[in-house]
């Protein structure tokens, strides 16, 4: 009995050592690749950047890719390239990190939040139509947890209404939708290389696109709006000459970072395979627990499993989500919550967004708990999480 006493009630935790929810893997090859750049002529503006871009383009099947200093900067670039400006409305999901809609605000546009599907937690395509107005310019679907959003429906609606689709694929490098790679489907697709994502550059992001016009705009936006391209200059004072043609930013990534990215990308297959195996183990081991709902997977997509989220059925528990969360933390399991619906943040409230816009996202938020999942975990780590979930849930179950 004392063996199974919850750690939050003074018992021994399931694990002695804290298991984080996500973590990068860096090996000797990664370190060598970075050191090589440090000893080279270019710390930034060199060949490692284009190499990483072309390898991401090849991996995703996109014609072009432009690397940025972060996924957020990349989203900003995509909104600029899409021509989003004052008064333009952009449809997106609230079940995401704030960057998915902040990029619209950077450009003076207005995010319009559409609710999620209760099974996949992705943007519900059936609700998009009703939110389209003459001011709608784009849709930003997010491939939440790595499971692709309903892209056929979204692309169809976009074509009918002449909208640009910018995919937030921060969770979905290596995912597929109906056997097509994420990155070559929408007009522009953003990837993030933050250390919790599939591969890392420390900070970093990318836009993949098949569109040469967007490609040129993204390159110029990333570097102050400056171009040296002879064919695009208004004047030409000489060989030194360049022009700043619009207000861009310094959103460049470095060769130090992109050399790490290229080295990491060599291992993407094994990283995703490992995440998939661990997720399958979670599904097998947690399947019988009535008090939680496991992530539903569409039959025609392959998730890249960035996050593993369980939904608590609070009516079957004598505990709040907060208590379950804290009890799991005390068992040394690094649980997390993804995400607070974006428009509930005080800044969005100050813009006039109110509670109640997306009731499904709001109720999911109340019940979600993210379990640890990263390629560096092993099966024993998963079994520790499973043991902790069973211990805590059975303690608070009212079934
Ligand atoms: C990580 C993330 C971003 C932002 O990427 P950064 O590289 O951290 O700027 C955007 N959207 C989602 C859904 C993310 O998870």
UniProtKB/TrEMBL annotation:
Enzyme class of the recorded protein, top EC level: transferase
Gene Ontology MF, one: transaminase activity
Pfam families: DegT_DnrJ_EryC1
Gene3D superfamilies (UniProt xref): Aspartate Aminotransferase, domain 1, Type I PLP-dependent aspartate aminotransferase-like (Major domain)
Superkingdom to which the source organism belongs: Bacteria
Enzyme Commission no: 2.6.1.92
UniProt keyword annotations, A-Z: Aminotransferase, Pyridoxal phosphate, Transferase
Family: Belongs to the DegT/DnrJ/EryC1 family.
PANTHER family: DTDP-4-AMINO-4,6-DIDEOXYGALACTOSE TRANSAMINASE (PTHR30244:SF34), TRANSAMINASE (PTHR30244)
Record protein name field: UDP-4-amino-4, 6-dideoxy-N-acetyl-beta-L-altrosamine transaminase
């Amino acid at each position: 009995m004392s063996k199974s006493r919850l750690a939050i009630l003074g018992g021994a935790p399931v694990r002695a050592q804290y298991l984080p929810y996500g973590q990068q893997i860096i090996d000797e090859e990664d370190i060598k690749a970075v050191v090589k750049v440090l000893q080279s002529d270019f710390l930034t503006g060199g060949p490692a950047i284009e190499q990483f871009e072309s390898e991401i383009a090849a991996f995703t099947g996109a014609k072009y890719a432009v690397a940025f200093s972060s996924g957020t900067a990349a989203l900003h670039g995509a909104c600029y390239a899409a021509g989003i400006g004052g008064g333009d409305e952009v449809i997106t999901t609230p079940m995401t990190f704030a960057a998915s809609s902040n990029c619209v605000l950077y450009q003076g546009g207005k995010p319009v939040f559409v609710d999620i599907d209760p099974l996949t937690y992705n943007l519900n395509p059936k609700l998009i139509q009703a939110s389209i107005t003459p001011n709608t310019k784009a849709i930003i679907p997010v491939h939440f947890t790595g499971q692709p959003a309903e892209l056929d429906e979204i692309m169809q609606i976009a074509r009918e209404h002449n909208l640009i689709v910018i995919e937030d694929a921060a969770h979905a490098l290596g995912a597929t939708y109906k056997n097509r790679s994420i990155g070559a489907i929408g007009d522009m697709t953003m990837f993030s290389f933050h250390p919790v994502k599939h591969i890392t550059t420390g900070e970093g992001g990318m836009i993949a696109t098949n569109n040469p016009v967007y490609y040129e705009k993204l390159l110029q936006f990333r570097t102050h709006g400056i171009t040296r391209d002879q064919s695009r200059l208004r004047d030409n004072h000489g060989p030194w000459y360049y022009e700043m043609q619009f207000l861009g930013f310094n959103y460049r990534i470095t060769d130090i970072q992109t050399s790490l990215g290229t080295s990491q990308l060599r291992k993407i297959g094994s990283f995703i395979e490992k995440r998939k195996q661990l997720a399958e183990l979670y599904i097998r081991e947690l399947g019988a627990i009535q008090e939680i709902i496991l992530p539903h997977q569409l039959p025609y997509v392959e998730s890249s499993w960035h996050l593993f989220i369980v939904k608590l059925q609070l009516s079957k528990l004598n505990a709040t989500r907060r208590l379950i969360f804290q009890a799991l933390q005390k068992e040394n399991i690094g649980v997390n919550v993804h995400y607070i619906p974006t428009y509930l943040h005080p800044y969005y409230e100050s813009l006039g967004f109110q509670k109640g816009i997306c009731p499904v996202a709001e109720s999911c938020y109340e019940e979600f708990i993210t379990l640890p999942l990263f390629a560096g975990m092993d099966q024993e780590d998963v079994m520790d999480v499973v043991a902790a979930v069973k211990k805590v849930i059975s303690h608070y179950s009212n079934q």
